[in-house]
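F.,

This is the one I mentioned.
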């Protein structure tokens, strides 16, 4: 519990008159024993602040204590050892001061915070650890800390405590060491400017050598209330090689401000009684409306202001009900819920009694050799061992019980697994650095450049939380401001004219009456307008996932899904009025932007973050309704080009890759080469010219109502920034482009870019383009080098012209060029002579060719060999398995859950795009099989055992039978069959279904070549060349060189005759007994 004895109220501000502080070298906060002992120390002395040194933590360790915040500086690069931290009660308002980002220290490690005093003076508190090495730097780095914090200024008070490893006879040590002499001399020379008082403990802080190593340096204006002048600060026994030091301070005629911020509760929605919630919300609704049926009038039209007002009223009713009914998570100390029991407490108290008795003997000058001291030390050691063993037993019991409760049939199983096993990297953004030549960003963020510190590289340091929020907000806002200028004045005028004309066109609207109520419409009532029925809204709400993330309205999906009918009825009235008014409610346009660090990037560079957008969940529901009308219109008017595979129902990345690879094979088998250019559109969504998008909707003849509501939806959008649970006070504007994270943005982007695909695909024979949203590839084919190069250059010029005209931009550095070709001896003479010089000109650079490109997650080489791709996915799968090793190696976890986790987390990495690369050799497939078997042996704990001297062999067949899953190669075959079966059903796009019905004569001819189309799988599968009648994946057991991709007559003969077999062909019982549905896989009939 928090002790509020010293808490005062003054002018409505919470303040505190004094502070209780403990400083402790904990010598590792990793072990459960140390966490437990620290928790007991907190319970016994209720300190306001604890200064910890030698924490030995790294980023993987999660530490928390109830009612405290922890500020850490772990040793760089996760090297175990060192590290400092400060525990401070939640009631204090403080700021983290990142000294280490100003100067890189090699001797002193520190964590520093700043507390504001009532007088607006500053109180700096630092935890310091100075290892015994690098003696020569100690004085300079200590001086550096004092200078960095301006501790010579009259307005700055300070408390610096920790392990200095400095011995001196002045602070009761028997002798002085080099560090002690350096520290003593430095204090003597600086005691006046820095107002220094030096404090040591009453007993040795390091009992092993009876040394006083843990010290406290304070501003001499600070009063230490519990210090006996000659004796020193109070020593507390602790289960470390150091004792803790305890003291209480007061700052004369001043007080410390407390945290007046709103307490953020974390709600446990998954444990909510939803029936009780519905009753409560009905009660609150009736109270708000005086038992009226409708809070929101349904028998008349609402204006836009009324819509916004009623949204707020509904939110208030829902929030009140959440506060009343939804349970809150009680965050216990990281050890409290795990191992605390009576025996642990008894052993801990007994050990402290023994330590106190030993310290008393030291005070009475008993010699170390005294048998009584030796006896007590032995008893302390035995008690400590018993405590460790008991803690370990309790910890194992806790995890065993927790893991055994996981049900593999529970739909929330993976959510539970993630909480237990997945280590989350909660990056706290302490400091940002901005280059000295980028003062524009600082000024636009409303930060005074003159008040900023610089680091050793002359970068400006941003460490105030409010400034960090401002910087991110400015960067994200600027992204939406950036718009390419073009010289096409005619288009600009045309677009502006279309927008102006739109303002004067009146859209059709419905009059709601007592006979035609806004929330009681039938299907026939909504047939000729954009309005929706209650059945439609209920269907959308029930289909929501049980997510608990919230936008600015703080209402998660799981609550929307469980709203009673009386509330959904009010939302239906609001939605139908919004649709009728072509109005997107104001509050539904504001998002919370959270900066997420890009993998492997420097966290101090603000440009290394990408924004994640959290919108109100109800706004996403509204956008789903709008999106459906957009999709219906695009389908009806046949707007979207068939070569666009992104964000469309029954379209996928694999269909896009399939078309590309199939086209390449057709042309290369015709003795041609194919030149391809992968184009990266820079910041595609955020760079869209919104006026241009509205103009395109007009040109495509979208209904006026749809255009107007889309226009209102994408304009005047705003966002706030959130980091470290703090939110920016400023609301930033999205002046251009589409907002990230919205439901409709992908579909609107497809409409915006569609005309480019239409233009590219009308350029004549052997000129192609494919897009998956903003991932565009253009390619041409010909036998001759000059033709293939000039035609691709012409296509690229079209792309550049369109991108420039419509105010987008290309990231030329990320564009990739490749020449797909056969062996040079089979190519035209002009290709053989010039292929090395193949490049494409852009506005700024020449794009040179590469031999391998990554297209939509598949690594494709110039000769369509997938050896590199298999190597990459295996490495990726190994890393994923290693990251989840706590799950897979856990002995207490049900085997079924581990196998299911493998199938869900690891197998998709191995099998992605398998219909494209199915034609790999047996040796490459064996690498995949071998990796899978290793994973399964780990999950099943089925290794060669020491009892058999590691000779007892566990067969692959037994492994698969025990795991109860089919072998990975048979699973790949199953996936490919499903892919083509689904493709055959997609009749509205010939690019998807055409490969299923490819000419068999052509396939038969081309399988003897190296460039085999993906759809050749059907031809081979039909003849049982892939999987034989015994369900053995024979295709992946025939001996072929890894580089040999053609399927010649010799390979076919080996398959038929079951000869030249490579690797073990044993398959599991599930493989053998698996039934094949020949109605679905029609080619197998």
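My design for it:
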């Amino acid at each position: 519990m928090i002790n509020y004895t010293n808490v005062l109220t003054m002018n409505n501000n919470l303040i505190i008159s004094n502070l209780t502080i403990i400083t402790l070298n904990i010598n590792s906060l990793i072990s459960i024993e140390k966490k437990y002992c620290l928790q007991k120390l907190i319970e016994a002395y209720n300190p306001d602040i604890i200064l910890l040194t030698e924490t030995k933590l790294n980023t993987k360790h999660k530490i928390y204590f109830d009612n405290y915040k922890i500020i850490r500086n772990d040793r760089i690069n996760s090297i175990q050892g060192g590290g400092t931290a400060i525990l401070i009660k939640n009631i204090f308002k403080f700021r983290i001061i990142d000294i280490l980002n100003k100067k890189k220290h090699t001797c002193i490690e520190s964590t520093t915070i700043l507390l504001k005093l009532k007088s607006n003076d500053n109180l700096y508190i630092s935890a310091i650890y100075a290892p015994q090495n690098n003696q020569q730097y100690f004085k300079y780095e200590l001086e550096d800390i004092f200078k960095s914090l301006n501790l010579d200024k009259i307005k700055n008070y300070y408390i610096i405590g920790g392990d200095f490893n400095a011995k001196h006879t002045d602070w009761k040590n028997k002798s002085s060491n080099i560090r002690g002499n350096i520290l003593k001399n430095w204090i003597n020379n600086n005691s006046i400017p820095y107002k220094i008082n030096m404090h040591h403990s009453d007993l040795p802080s390091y009992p092993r050598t009876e040394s006083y190593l843990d010290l406290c340096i304070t501003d001499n204006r600070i009063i230490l209330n519990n210090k006996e002048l000659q004796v020193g600060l109070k020593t507390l026994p602790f289960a470390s090689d150091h004792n803790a030091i305890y003291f209480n301070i007061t700052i004369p005629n001043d007080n410390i401000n407390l945290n007046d911020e709103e307490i953020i509760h974390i709600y446990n929605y998954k444990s909510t009684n939803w029936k009780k919630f519905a009753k409560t919300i009905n009660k609150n609704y009736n109270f708000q409306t005086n038992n009226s049926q409708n809070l929101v009038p349904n028998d008349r039209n609402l204006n836009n202001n009324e819509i916004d007002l009623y949204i707020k009223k509904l939110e208030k009713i829902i929030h009140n009900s959440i506060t009343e009914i939804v349970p809150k998570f009680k965050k216990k100390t990281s050890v409290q819920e795990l191992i605390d029991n009576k025996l642990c407490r008894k052993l801990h108290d007994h050990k402290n009694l023994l330590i106190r008795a030993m310290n008393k003997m030291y005070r009475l000058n008993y010699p170390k050799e005294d048998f009584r001291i030796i006896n007590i030390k032995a008893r302390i050691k035995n008690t400590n061992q018993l405590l460790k063993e008991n803690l370990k037993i309790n910890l194992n019991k806790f995890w065993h019980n927790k893991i055994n409760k996981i049900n593999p049939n529970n739909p929330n199983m993976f959510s539970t697994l993630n909480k237990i096993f997945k280590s989350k990297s909660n990056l706290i953004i302490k400091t940002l650095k901005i280059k000295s030549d980028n003062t524009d960003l600082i000024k636009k963020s409303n930060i005074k450049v003159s008040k900023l510190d610089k680091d050793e590289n002359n970068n400006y340091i941003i460490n105030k939380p409010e400034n960090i929020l401002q910087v991110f907000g400015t960067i994200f806002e600027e992204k939406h401001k950036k718009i390419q200028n073009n010289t096409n004045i005619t288009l600009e005028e045309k677009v502006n004219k279309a927008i102006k004309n739109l303002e004067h066109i009146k859209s059709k609207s419905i009059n709601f009456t007592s006979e035609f109520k806004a929330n009681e419409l039938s299907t026939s009532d909504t047939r000729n307008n954009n309005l929706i029925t209650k059945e439609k809204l209920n269907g959308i709400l029930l289909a929501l996932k049980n997510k608990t993330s919230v936008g600015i309205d703080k209402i998660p999906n799981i609550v929307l899904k469980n709203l009673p009918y009386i509330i959904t009825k009010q939302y239906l009235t609001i939605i139908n009025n919004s649709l009728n008014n072509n109005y997107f409610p104001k509050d539904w346009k504001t998002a919370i932007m959270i900066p997420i660090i890009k993998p492997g990037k420097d966290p101090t560079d603000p440009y290394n973050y990408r924004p994640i957008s959290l919108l109100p969940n109800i706004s996403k529901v509204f956008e789903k309704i709008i999106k459906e009308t957009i999709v219906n219109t695009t389908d009806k008017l046949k707007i979207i080009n068939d070569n666009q595979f992104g964000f469309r129902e029954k379209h996928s990345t694999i269909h896009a890759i399939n078309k590309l690879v199939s086209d390449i094979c057709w042309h290369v088998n015709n003795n041609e080469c194919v030149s391809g250019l992968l184009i990266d559109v820079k910041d595609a969504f955020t760079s869209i010219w919104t006026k241009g998008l509205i103009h395109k909707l007009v040109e495509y003849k979208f209904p006026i109502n749809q255009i107007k509501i889309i226009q209102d939806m994408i304009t005047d959008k705003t966002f706030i920034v959130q980091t470290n649970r703090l939110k920016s006070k400023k609301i930033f504007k999205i002046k251009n482009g589409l907002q990230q994270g919205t439901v409709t943005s992908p579909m609107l982007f497809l409409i915006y870019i569609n005309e480019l695909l239409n233009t590219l695909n009308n350029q004549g024979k052997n000129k192609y383009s494919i897009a998956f949203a903003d991932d565009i590839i253009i390619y041409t084919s010909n036998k001759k080098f000059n033709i293939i190069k000039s035609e691709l250059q012409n296509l690229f010029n079209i792309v550049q012209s369109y991108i420039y005209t419509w105010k987008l931009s290309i990231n030329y550095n990320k564009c990739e060029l490749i020449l797909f070709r056969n062996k040079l001896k089979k190519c035209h003479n002009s290709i053989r002579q010039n292929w090395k010089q193949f490049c494409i000109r852009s506005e700024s650079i020449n794009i040179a060719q590469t031999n391998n490109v990554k297209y939509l997650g598949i690594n494709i080489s110039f000769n369509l060999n997938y050896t590199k791709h298999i190597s990459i996915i295996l490495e990726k799968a190994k890393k994923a398995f290693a990251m989840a090793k706590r799950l897979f190696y856990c002995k207490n976890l049900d085997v079924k859950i581990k196998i299911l986790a493998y199938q869900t987390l690891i197998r998709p990495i191995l099998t992605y795009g398998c219909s494209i690369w199915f034609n790999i050799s047996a040796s490459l497939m064996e690498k995949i099989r071998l990796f899978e078997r290793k994973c399964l042996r780990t999950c099943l704990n089925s290794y060669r055992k020491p009892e058999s001297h590691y000779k007892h062999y566990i067969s692959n067949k037994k492994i698969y039978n025990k795991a109860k899953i089919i072998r990975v190669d048979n699973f790949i075959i199953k996936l490919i069959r499903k892919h083509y079966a689904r493709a055959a059903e997609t009749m509205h796009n010939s690019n998807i279904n055409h490969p299923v019905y490819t000419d068999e004569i052509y396939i038969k001819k081309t399988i003897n070549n190296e460039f085999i189309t993906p759809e050749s799988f059907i031809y081979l599968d039909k003849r049982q060349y892939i999987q034989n009648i015994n369900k053995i994946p024979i295709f992946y057991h025939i001996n072929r060189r890894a580089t040999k991709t053609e399927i010649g007559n010799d390979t076919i003969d080996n398959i038929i005759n079951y000869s030249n077999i490579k690797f073990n062909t044993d398959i599991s019982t599930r493989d053998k007994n698996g039934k094949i549905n020949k109605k679905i896989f029609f080619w197998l009939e």
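The longest strand covers residues 18-25.

Talk soon.
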